Amino acid sequence: MERRLAAIVAADVAGYSRLMGIDEEGTLAQLKGHRQALVDPKIEEHRGRIVKTTGDGMLVEFASVVDAVRCAVEVQRGMSERNARLSVDRRIEFRVGINLGDIIIDDDDIYGDGVNIAARLEGIAEPGGIFISRQARDHLLEKLSFTCEKLGLRNLKNIAKPVEVYSVNFGSVSMTQEIKYCRARDGVRLAYATVGQGSPLVKTANWLNHLEYDWESPIWHHLLEGLARNHTLVRYDARGNGLSDWDVDELSLEAWVSDLETVVDTIGMERFPLLGVSQGCAISVAYAARHPERLSHLILYGGFALGGHKRSPAEQEKRKAMGTLMRLGWGMDDPAFRQMFTSQFIPEATKEQADWFNDLQRKTTSPEIAARYLDVVGNFDVRELLPRVQVPTLVMHVRDDLIAPIDAGRKMAAGIPGAHFIALPGRNHLFLKQEPAAARFFEEINLFLSK
């Protein structure tokens, strides 16, 4: 049998079964049109060979990794343009995996780990994304203009050894954000930013945001980019952290709700969907109860209506101790304390991701403000406001969240009339880019907002 080294591209359609369930004939016609007009011509242009197709997927061989990645990027950019006029629930989005490896040729088909790894990378890639192996990435250095984000070692199904995975950064949507400032009612300076294109989506500020550093962080970047891909994302740094004023007299639920009011009023937004993450959920609930006429949809992720101080005496003692440690260890060069905090937020992070989060905490706020933040959030109680939320609401929560237990999310959803609750797989309070929860999160939001 013949063997050779080749760049292998595996691709399929994200959410294909759902699309077929909605419109079988229309989906098939769309897929055929995309292949004829874009995919197949790009493969031919970059000297690729289609080995086989499998319904919604295909396997392609290239002699060069550069050609393989360049072809995949041009296809993904082209698909972004072709999808621009379609509603989010009708879009066909490809997932792509690329590997450089040894293959076995048998007639016109190819086999071996070189092929298997590409297929497994495709399986974990995000919709519209490209995941590549370390072997493929090493052949791209200084040969293409876009960069690759390191996602760390991944255990891929039926692959004996862990594979180092990278995500190709090629976003066709402009991710240049515009940062501006406004004044809260008590004079605190608030920083806010808009990025992306499309209908608006407002994200309520939450723990440890920073308008600039979040874009550089492997913890937040994928979330922000995913939200801005189909929307004009509006976000801001809460008082006490990020680019907003740190030295503030008042930290309270009322102040944070008022700050959200200030930002959206400054921008001049009339009606919009609102996303709350973590303790930003309680702030979002309070805003929704106060301004039902302003919201079209409410999305809550990883949140709670009742703060940790009020859930149990043991939880209260734990958080008091954490606050004391924050005042003592938050700003130190030694990241030992911050690492303890990080291990609760993202227990499954790679070392690189954990190091980023450790550093981000110190850059985002002061030890005193961090401790005050934790205390105020621990005493949140918006349970009485839940029945007053009258907008369509989607609640999502990771099953094994160590920061906010899933039961807190379920109780919050149960208190909101008509709220839809979805449990996502994982242990990280904020899901990481490579997790299955990431793709599900964006898919559910797109479906929800299209209704």
Key attributes of the depicted protein:
451 residues; alpha/beta; Rossmann fold; 2 domains; 8-stranded mixed β-sheet; 15 helices; 16 strands; 40% helix; globular
Major beta sheet summary: 8 strands, mixed
Average pLDDT metric: 89
Globally, the shape reads globular
CATH topology of the largest domain: the name is Rossmann fold
Instruction: Provide a count of the helices.
Output: 15
Tally the beta strands.
Answer: 16
Strand content: 15-25%
CATH superfamily of the largest domain: Alpha/Beta hydrolase fold, catalytic domain
Task: Characterize the structure shown.
With 451 residues, the chain is an alpha/beta fold. The protein has 2 domains: 168 residues, Alpha-Beta Plaits (2-Layer Sandwich); 273 residues, Rossmann fold, CATH 3.40.50.1820. It is built from 15 helices and 16 strands. The strands form 2 sheets. Strands 1, 2, 3, 4, 5, 6, 7 and 8 form an 8-stranded mixed sheet that branches. It is globular and about 70 Å long. It starts with a strand and ends with a helix. The mean pLDDT is 89.
Give me a quick take on this structure:
The chain starts with a strand and ends with a helix.
